[in-house]
Amino acid sequence: MAVSGSSGSRADNGYGSQQPRRRKGPGALATAYLVIYNVVMTAGWLVIAVGLVRAYLAKGSYHSLYYSIEKPLKFFQTGALLEEYLLIAKYLPGIVPSSVVLTAFQVMSRVFLTWAVTHSVKEVQTEDSVLLFVVAWTITEIIRYSFYTFSLLNHLPYLIKWARYTLFIVLYPMGVTGELLTIYAALPFVRQSGLYSISLPNKYNFSFDYYTFLILVMISYIPIFPQLYFHMLHQRRKVLSHTEEHKKSE
Description:
Its main location: endoplasmic reticulum. This protein is mainly α.
């Protein structure tokens, strides 16, 4: 699911007392490409953040702010699909060890929520729950892509590392709540319109009920979100405790 946070991967392996041998990182050209990619993504999510703030100040209300950032949100969230290629190519794991399965799940679920729910069911775009997950995603992604950028450059500020492994404690539940409420709000409209559903009989002898599918998507959060959340809590203890031990030894 589109579990916020982080995001980001959205779940990075930490550093144990005996660190495993790091994968060989990408070469200079690949590193430059990855840095540019992460800088662009950081800038993109900053644009979304600024757009939200400007729209709020102009309207004096947080309602229906989705329309002010709809286009950049679709563009940069869909752009995260490129991250799937980077993970499969094993570039990012060489710099920032990541859970490929969890990262792939989060990226695909966020793209799904962006296009197959929020874009496709126009009626939910005014729901406050959309703003809830958009804000959670935005903060998470700014931190996450900054984290990747500085890690690639081997100059990771402690503040960014701390934010990466701390703010998810609030942002993940916030994002998940917004996502679930948005899907739930979409259900009546999907059922009424038959959106993306295929009924029998047809020449393919195949049926698909999008309404039921969305319910199954919501149910899938039950096993997946706790796994991701507690994984990140575990990584937080390992990463930040390792950093503190390193500072004390200096």
